[in-house]
């Protein structure tokens, strides 16, 4: 379990009014029998942003999406999506959102185009308008050539693109993506990331759950880690990484004399006499890096290599969900 004194990060808004929320929740709760799935979570997701919800299997990520998309009801708390109250105006919420679940909603027995037209019918679009929207989305998602083929013949990446294209038929301004790239190869995953970025550029708000920490790091404006039904921490990727100890600066020298001088000047450093290297604890901030460089400059010492090591989201995830950390990797090299 994460440490009880693990800090909680909240949006830095200063004296300004809070950004308009596309999705907000206060004290959201859900239980199944004796099993508490959500234990009073709060959310504030600004419009036109990507919010990523991380957590181990069974943490409540999908339950959160199901509640906010009106698929199930909460046991307690309040939530608004697209400015509409989940409890009193669920139809307005449904009209404002699109949902792409963990498992594809594509019907493999019909063509990609027919899947799109079916969604247009469900949205009560006139026939001509439905065909126009379907054609535009198939082109946008690079599915025009495959449009007349049965969806069962599509690759995994094509099915996920078709699934998301179907979600966009109703022009939602808020999209819930529940693990949208699970099972995709790296190229297909990156293609999906580009699609998500394009949606956000167009003003769409994306609520993303994912098992891929790199995905959250690449896409999300803010990230929350859900554990045991509660938000363990929330912030930008950079803010979350600073929660985890273990960041450091590594200095390597080729001149033994310079190494000895640096060892004397940086007494808090951990020595590696064989490699002529020093490791100094650091959060990787510009302020701390400048302090180390100023100290070396004032002592007339030149390092041959300086490497900044910072924790990644893997470290954050493990620290917040089971109290362990994984080996740190170099994130930036400065020479």
- The CATH class of the largest domain is identified as Alpha Beta
**In which range does the helix fraction lie?**
25-40%
Give the mean pLDDT.
87
Oligomer: single chain
Reported for the largest beta sheet, the result is: 6 strands, mixed
Strand line-up across the major sheet: 6-7-8-3-9-10
Helix-strand pattern: EEEHEEHEHHHEHEHEEHEHEEHEHE
The tally of helices reads 11
Overall geometry comes to elongated
Taking pLDDT < 50 over at least 5 consecutive residues as the criterion, the unreliable ranges are 1-8, 10-16, 324-335
Any idea what the CATH superfamily of the largest domain is called?
P-loop containing nucleotide triphosphate hydrolases
Helix- and strand-based class?
alpha/beta
Approximately how much beta-strand content do the residues carry? 25-35%
Distance between the termini: 39 Å
CA-atom Rg in angstroms: 24 Å
Query: How many β-strand runs?
Result: 15
Descriptive account of the structure:
The protein has 335 residues and is α/β, with parallel strands linked by helices. It has two domains: 21-241, P-loop containing nucleotide triphosphate hydrolases (Rossmann fold, 3-Layer(aba) Sandwich); 248-309, 2-Layer Sandwich (Alpha-Beta Plaits). Helices cover 33% and strands 26% of the residues. It is built from eleven helices and 15 strands. β1 (21-32) and β2 (35-46) form a beta hairpin. The longest helix is centred in the middle third of the chain and has 16 residues, at 186-201. It is elongated, with a radius of gyration of 24 Å. The relative contact order is 0.14. Residues 1-8, 10-16 and 324-335 have low confidence and may be disordered.
